[in-house]
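User: Could you go from structure to sequence for me? I need the amino acid at each position, not a summary. Structure tokens:
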């Protein structure tokens, strides 16, 4: 009886340890693409879209022009296991709109409506969603935006594009001011090129955004729109994601050497599916809990943040101190300090990802 009791207790402890072991990270493949329309289920355009998503298998999708209700419903049903979470932006009638599909829970989402110089709000807002990439760690780890700026060249179009960029830049700035460690990935069809006023507005210092250069790895081209060859689809990341975007590229089935297109995609699928090309990037969601400021090391700065939060066992941490609860048992106590000590690497020295094991 005794040995069975001991075995049960040990098994229980093992479970507890597994539960408390900090989650360290996830590589999040994000696809951004203006798909023109889902098209009707069964059409060549729709089937090419499905094959490309199957070939790339992203964790998060940012779509623009996600219209055609029947195609959209068929797509979401086909990928319901892969993307159990989704958010469809306005308008809800069949006009081009933005959509976010996610393998991770969406904890919060919203739409940014922009003033239309013709009166009212522009019908097609930028949309955003907070993603809980690491469910074992409190709070969401990534915020994504899907944007589609007004096309055209008349005065209203130019004003609207700049208004959209200004509103989105302000939205990102407000988010990062309230959440200095928030991670932002912003992408979409901005209908303007590098150097234009909307792009410059997004890149103003307070957004902390950097534009991610995207190239087709098979020919080095930055083109995202065909047949015009313009580069009007863009991706940006916040300073908190500096160094965390891996392998950015433009996906273009037509430029792969013969026989090398990732299956089940076919050679001409990019052009069959849409008049834009897809942007892909892997975002490294770094999650070593002891690295409180998430800059890669565990140093005196992390210790200072931690020390100001340390209390006693069983005292629930609140506000900015939740991040100092390194073993996720709600308090900031000696056990958390032990984890910090084990992970301490020193300034600018990458912490050992296995330190907390
Ligand atoms: Ca989380
Ligand atoms: Ca650090
Ligand atoms: Ca704790």
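Assistant: Here is the amino acid at each position, in order:
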């Amino acid at each position: 009886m005794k040995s069975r009791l001991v075995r049960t207790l040990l098994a229980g402890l093992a479970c507890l340890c597994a539960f408390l072991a900090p989650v360290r990270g996830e590589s999040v493949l994000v696809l951004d693409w203006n798909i023109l329309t889902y098209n009707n289920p069964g059409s060549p355009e729709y089937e090419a879209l499905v094959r490309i998503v199957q070939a790339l298998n992203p964790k998060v999708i940012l779509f623009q022009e996600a219209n055609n209700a029947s195609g959209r419903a068929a797509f979401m049903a086909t990928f319901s296991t892969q993307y159990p979470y989704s958010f469809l932006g306005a308008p809800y009638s069949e006009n081009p709109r933005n959509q976010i599909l996610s393998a991770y829970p969406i904890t919060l989402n919203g739409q940014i409506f922009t003033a239309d110089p013709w009166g009212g709000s522009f019908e097609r807002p930028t949309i955003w969603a907070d993603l809980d990439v690491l469910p074992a760690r409190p709070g969401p780890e990534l915020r994504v935006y899907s944007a589609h700026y007004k096309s055209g060249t008349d005065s209203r179009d130019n004003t609207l594009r700049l208004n959209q960029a200004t509103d989105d830049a302000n939205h990102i700035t407000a988010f990062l001011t309230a959440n200095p460690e928030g991670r932002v990935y912003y992408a979409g069809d901005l209908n303007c090129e590098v150097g234009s006023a909307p792009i410059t507005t997004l890149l103003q210092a307070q957004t902390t955004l950097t534009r991610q250069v995207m190239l087709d790895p098979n020919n080095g081209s930055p083109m995202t729109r065909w047949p015009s060859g313009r580069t009007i689809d863009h991706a940006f990341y916040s300073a908190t994601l500096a160094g965390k975007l891996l392998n950015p590229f433009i996906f273009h089935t037509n430029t792969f050497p013969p026989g090398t297109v990732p299956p089940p995609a076919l050679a001409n699928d990019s052009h069959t599916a849409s008049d834009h090309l897809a942007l892909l990037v892997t975002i490294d969601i770094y999650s070593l809990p002891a690295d409180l400021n998430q800059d890669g090391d565990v140093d005196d700065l992390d210790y200072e943040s931690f020390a100001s939060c340390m209390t006693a066992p069983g005292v629930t941490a609140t506000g900015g101190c939740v991040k100092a609860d390194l073993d996720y048992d709600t308090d900031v106590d000696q056990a958390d300090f032990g984890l910090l000590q084990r992970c301490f690497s020193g300034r600018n020295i990458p912490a050992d990802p296995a330190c907390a094991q």
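One structural detail worth keeping in mind: The pocket of calcium ion (ligand 3) is lined by residues 325, 327, 329, 331-333, 335-336 (CB under 6 Å).
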